[in-house]
Design goal:
The structure holds two protein chains of two kinds. Chain A is α/β, with parallel strands linked by helices. Helix content of chain A is 27%, strand content 22%. Chain A is globular and about 60 Å long. In chain B, helix 4 packs antiparallel against helix 7 (125-133) and helix 13 (227-250) runs antiparallel to helix 14. Chain B is globular and about 60 Å long. Chain B starts with a helix and ends with a helix. Classes of the chains: A alpha/beta, B mainly alpha.
């Protein structure tokens, strides 16, 4: 399978029909990489990446270069290795071949500044955390030792307050995190990931089990971050429509095959039929993509519904 | 009836007893135990490890019983048994479902082994009974040093990695994503539980370790979600019930476990009631 990834830069603004609804935040193009990241060093770089689980090869020869401010959606049926890819980028798993770099460094190491947004999960109601504590853990929960010094504390409180305000969570900053609604908790997840000032944002199905209004809020918050701070976004999802206006490129993984390109290049009848090795039809209905025939039962339910 | 009450609450000799060195040692032991139990309890509750604590305490009981038979220091035997259990449970990580059944298996084995060993023991029966129901006055200065040493280890570990432990306990997935060594911390925490449980077994008894290691955290979590407030409250509750239990038990000369369990249960009830009447106001204020 050929890939377009290695040579592809952030795509040019020519939107396909229906790709950019008017007034959507995705209309702004990703800004140029910020001066702090060395010129030419991509936010994420996979080169000849291979991941095999025993006999089974999830993907091989994966070249992907994500620039600062780029929004890449990772799509594919269950078990195609989407989450495994995230784990590689988080430094939780080793590639079985090839190389991976985040801001030019090994993943999981110091200085990679990676934010992570998990899918919404019910939190224990009695978890001893307020909303602000959950966000604060995103700032320094990985550090050893105690917080020392009044100034450092002051600064920490300010940063947490700023992050809470950015997601509109100031009103419930002191409420028990476990007693908030799913949408409120997911906003906190965004704040928790952003408070550490990430240069790369990794999202694992962050919209799953949210209602439409909250899906919009959360995806707009993520998009706002990447346009304002040029944070690269890798967004694992099985449903592209809620983020379709924001997506620069798609990485589509199916049974060891993959394709990288703009949504217009990848989300077509020809490409998906080739990936799935069966007849798959991609229809455009207004601003939405409808995929018919991708047989994974859990995967495209929303597409065809 | 008044006779029984009179036996349960007898302060006639308490004043005189308080001047005895072994009573002062017992009070000090209770205070140290209360500190570490209170510090660990909120994390135990957050990690859903109440059952693991119970399992650990039964292995501590078996270890203590083995030490009795072998004629070595009971506290030492309890530490070995509890650490063994802690390591086993720690290796199981955070997955609740598989953990529960393994804890059940290990717990039953530990209890059975302990009873068998006690049956083999030919010495004073108060020693046997003490392991199950606790006798804090049996804490001698040797044990006090062991207790203090363990308390230093627990407090020192918490000072270094409290934030990571809180993160890994309350929010394991994101913690792992942020590079927190969740599995290693799971082991570290299990060892802390093992140490504290082992120390609690001779003092309050294997059956009632849960009362001091879990209830303070469960009570505190009802009234606050601020991690610092929860921890401070848990320490206060644990100290109140342990030191209070020792004081109440002195006059009547009854094992402290009944008093401790009752006092901490009252704390828990109070917290639930407090939360019930306060919660609507908080929710209104926070929206």
């Amino acid at each position: 399978m050929t890939t377009l990834g290695a040579s592809l830069r952030p795509n040019e603004p020519g939107p396909g029909p229906g790709r950019l609804p008017s007034g959507a935040p995705g209309q702004e193009r990703p800004p140029a990489p910020r001066s702090e990241s060395p010129a030419g060093v991509p936010a994420v770089e996979l080169h000849g990446a291979r991941m095999a689980l025993g006999e089974r090869v999830l993907w091989d020869g994966l070249d992907l270069r994500i620039e600062a401010g780029e929004f890449v959606a990772v799509l594919g049926p269950n078990g195609s290795g989407k989450t495994t890819l995230l784990k590689v980028l988080l430094g939780q798993r080793e590639l079985t071949g090839g190389t991976v770099r985040i801001n030019g460094r090994a993943p999981g190491g110091a200085g990679t500044r990676v934010g992570y947004i998990p899918q919404q999960q019910a939190m224990d109601v009695d978890v001893p955390l307020r909303a602000r504590d959950l966000v604060g853990l995103g700032l320094d929960g990985h550090r050893l030792g105690l917080r020392i010094g009044r100034r450092a504390r002051r600064e920490r409180i300010d940063r947490v307050n700023t992050a809470l305000a950015a997601v509109g969570a100031t009103g419930y900053a002191n409420s028990p995190a476990g007693r908030l609604s799913g949408g409120e908790q997911q906003r906190l997840r965004v704040a928790q990931a952003l408070v550490g000032d990430p240069s790369v944002l990794l999202c694992d199905e962050p919209l799953l089990s949210l209602d439409l209004a909250n899906q919009r809020v959360v995806s707009e918050l993520i998009d706002q971050r990447r346009t304002e701070a040029a944070t690269a976004v890798l967004f694992v999802t099985h449903e592209i429509n809620p983020v379709l206006p924001l997506v620069d490129r798609v990485l589509y993984l199916v049974n060891g095959q993959f394709r990288v390109g703009t949504p217009d290049e990848v989300m077509t009848t020809e490409v998906l039929s080739e990936l799935y090795r069966t007849q798959v039809d991609v229809l455009r209905v207004r601003d939405r993509l409808v995929v018919v025939g991708a047989e994974d039962p859990g995967c495209h339910r929303e597409h065809t519904a | 009836m008044t006779d029984i009450l009179g036996r349960l609450f007898d302060f006639a000799g308490t004043g005189a007893l308080l001047r005895l060195p072994f009573v002062q040692t017992a009070l000090l032991a209770a205070a140290v135990l209360g500190l570490i139990a209170g510090l660990l309890a909120p994390l135990i509750v957050t990690r859903g490890m109440a059952f693991a604590v119970h399992g650990t305490s039964e292995l501590g009981f078996a270890g203590g019983a083995a030490a009795l038979v072998a004629g070595v220091n009971v506290g030492f035997g309890a530490v070995v048994g509890a650490l063994f259990a802690a390591v086993v449970f720690g290796l199981l990580g955070l997955r609740q479902r598989e953990r529960d059944s393994v804890i059940g298996v290990v717990l039953a084995f530990g209890l059975g082994l302990g009873v068998l060993l006690l049956a083999l023991y030919q010495g004073r029966s108060v020693n046997k009974f003490g392991l199950l129901t606790g006798s804090i006055v049996s804490v001698d200065s040797n044990n006090l040093w062991l207790l203090t040493g363990c308390a230093v280890v627990v407090v020192g570990t918490l000072l270094v990695c409290y934030r990571q432990l809180l993160f890994a306990s309350a929010d394991p997935e994101v913690a792992a994503a942020r590079g927190v060594p969740v599995r290693v911390l799971s082991m570290v925490f299990a060892v802390l539980i093992g140490l504290s449980t082992a120390l609690a077994v001779p003092a309050v008894g294997a059956i009632l370790v849960l009362a001091v290691m879990v209830t303070p955290g469960a009570a505190a979590a009802r009234v606050s979600s601020n991690p610092v407030v929860v921890t401070v409250l848990a320490v206060v509750f644990a100290e109140f019930s342990l030191v209070g239990g020792v004081l109440l038990s002195l006059g009547p000369g009854i094992p402290i476990s009944g008093y401790v369990a009752t006092l901490i249960f009252l704390c828990y009830l109070g917290c639930r009631l407090f939360a019930r009447f306060r919660r609507p106001a908080v929710l209104l204020a926070s929206r």
